[in-house]
Every structure is written in structure tokens, then in C-alpha cells.
User: What shape does this take?
Amino acid sequence: MSIVTVAGVEVDTRHWIGGERIASADTFEDVSPLDGTVIADVSRGGRAEVDAAVAAAVAAFPAWARTSVDERAAVLHRVADGIEARIEDLAQVETRDNGSLLRSHRRGVMPRVAMNIRFFADHLRTLAHPDFDTRGHRNHVTWDPAGVTAIVTPWNAPLMLATWRIGPALAAGNTVVAKPPEWAPLTASLFADIAHEAGLPAGVFNVVQGLGVEAGAPLVAHPDVRRVCFTGSVPTSVRIGEAAARNTTPVSFELGGKSPLLVFDDADLDLAVDLAVEQFDNSGQVCLAAVRMLVQDGIYDEFRSRFLARAAEVTQGDSRDESVDLGPLVSRAHLDRVDGFVKRAVADGAQVILGGGPNDELNAATGGFYYRPTVFEGVGPEQEITCQEVFGPVLTLQRFSTEDDGVAMANDTEYGLAATIVTGSQERAERVSSRVRAGTVWVNCFFVRDLSAPFGGSGRSGIGREGGTWSFDFYCDVKNTVFAPRGWN
Assistant: This one.
């Protein structure tokens, strides 16, 4: 069936191409991590569907690019209104689809989806650079629409992370072909409905569902795509980068992280413990999570004791329950991957001081994919568990002596997405934050993000920056027009 009911909400499982629903001959199963049940058979696209979607986006581009900034903004505000009207539907479906907490979707994630669209619609209206003079010649800078944008998004926050790119791409005057994650594709389909109802013209936004190798690969390699955006793993980004490079297509990558939580001995311990426990959010399936806890000698033992006591109180269960803190991992395959990291770490001599495996009792009772919050101690800098992204509720705890030692440990990674610093000294905060290699540094806080701020990773954590004007620098062809100093007829 092309329309399924998920959490009481009707969802069309066909592609959205050129303003129409298009089915594929093949489908793939969408499994809920809450209980392991199949909730939808989703159209499984490939090269033919990608070609059709890109062709529709190419055809729609000239008219959308010529649409005035105010008219584009008005349409996008109606899209945001539609999202806000359906926050509960979107929250229910995405919780069923990817297992994240329903309360988080209701209160934070889905309101942010609407904000992603609304913010960039408004920011485009203020986008300007002052004209400047060169030997009497006037320079005038503009941001021109680039063309078709391919957006490939992950499953941990599929709609929020998709609209982080869809918002500025559409506001800029580009058209979009989105490939949602096969492990959580359903809210992208609902977004297509909302955008259509808001009056977004046919072909301006398209959705092709399918597996990465079958739908994602031909999309990012398509010669008519002018921008490629990807959020996900480093190995996949390498393949996408190679494909895009053949067409000299600019890419924006937000990739993995192995971020540090640096706790100095002058820190507010209550705050430090609160921030540490927060790293289990979304069952650790957060690229920005500070999974390497680095704690100074003077407070290490007390921090360890208080943190473990708090972490042991974290409740795990059905993500639709308001009292639950931790839901499941997204799939059986991902649970096995996370468990593989844990088992190899134990074999490598790391000491489990909390958790250490699947929540077998809960999994047996529900059929879901739950993994216990896990903490390792006694780990070294070269061990896999401290070097590679696990993307699960698995943290490591290490001690350091001096400020220089802490900074060196924080930077001892090929990643550089984020860092969190906890200290009672403003001077230390400014000094350390300037030395830590990361795209975002939080001091005595975590996950505070303004859409006008630059966002992206250093090292192997990504390419480029988005947010505010930085987004339009990517989604547009930035043009400088030079006017000669002469009169006009």
C-alpha cells in the first residue's frame, strides 16, 4: 500500500517528484526501533527516480530563481506555518520511525524544523554587502541562486537536519532533491505534503527514497546537480566527495565527532555532572556529543563518583513515555555495531564502570534495540574506543594533570566538530577555547546553537561552514559586478 498509518498519522510511502507521487516497483522495509516491527514498505528508488527528480528540479529552477526574495520568503513562511500546525504528527511519526524521545520532538526538534525554514527565509531579506570603490569603479556583491541542490541526511534527527539545509537552499532560489535516510524516511514525505500545501511550486522540492548505494550515489554524482550536502560518516563522505569532484560540484559535509568534555578542577561540579549526563542524549546518537570526558586530577575522584551515581539513574524504555530519558538505538545493525566497539574495547583492556552491553531484559520484553548507558575507564589514546566514533551511549573517562595536558588530550583526535569546557575561570575559558581545535566550543554549557552562527567541523569532521550568511555563501554563486565611472544614457 502506498499510504500507511503510523502513530495515527497517514504517510505516503511513494517518492515526491515534480509535484506528484511516484511509486517504484521495489520497496524496502522501514522498521521501528521501539519494538522491531515493520511500520512501512517504502518505495525503493534508484537511478531512474533520481534522473526524474533532478530533471524536475532543473525544469523548476528558472522560475523559482526569478521569484522575488519577498515572494520566496512568503512561501517559506507558509511552509513553516504548516510545520507548526503539524508538530504533533511529525513528532509522533519520527519517534516511531527513529526511536528518539517523543518529548524532545514535541518541545525542541520539530519547533526547530519550522525555525530552520523561517530563519533563512528572513535572513535572505537582510543579505547584503556594502558597495565599495576601486579607483572610482563601484563593486556590487550579489548572491545568485546556484541551481539544483542534492541533500542527503542521516537518521538521528532526519527532518531537523534536512531542513537545516533545505531552508537556506530554497530561500536562496535553488531547487532541491532530498534523499532521506532509509532507516527513518517518513517525515521527509510529510514535509513534502506540507510544502505542497503551502504553495511551493512543483519540482522545487523533491524526495527520492531508497538505499544509499542505489539512490544516494547517482544523486550526488549527477551532472546537473550544482551543490551537494551530506551529514553522516567520514567513509561515506569520501565516496560522495569523489563523485562530486568529477563534476566539480561544491560540497558541504557535516561528519563525525569524537568531542571532548574538559572539566577543570575549578569547575562547578554540579554543572559538570549535568553536562556529562547530557551526553547520553538521543542514546548517544549525536555527532556533537562530548563522548571523551577529560577530568583534571584534583576533582577526578569526586566527579567520577557523582557522575556514575547520576548516570545510573537514567531511565531507559519506550521513547513515547514522558518519564523515559533514553530510547533505543535506531536499528539492529547499529546496535550490533555499537556492541562491537564495546566488546573490542573490553578485549583491549578497557574497564567497564557502567553498563557494557545491550539491555537484554528490555529488548526481550519489547523486541526493540536498547543499549545500556556505558562508561569506560582505563583507556589509552591509541585505543579504538577513544579514537573512533561509536555513535551510541558509550563514553570514556580519562584524567589529566595540567592545562596543557588537557588541551593536548582534547586535540589528540582526527576529528574536530565540537568541544565543551567546564571551568570557573574566564581567563582559562578564553585561553583554552582558543587552543582547542573544534568548529564549535561550548563553555559551561552544551548544545546552544544560533542559526546565525557558523557551524561545521575541523579535521575529519567536515568541510565548510553553514549558518547565517555562511549558508548563502555556499548555496549561492557569489557574484561581484564592477561598474565603470561613467554616465548613463
About this structure: The chain has two domains: 3-255+461-481, 260-443. The chain is about 40% helix and 20% strand. The mean pLDDT is 97. The radius of gyration is 23 Å.
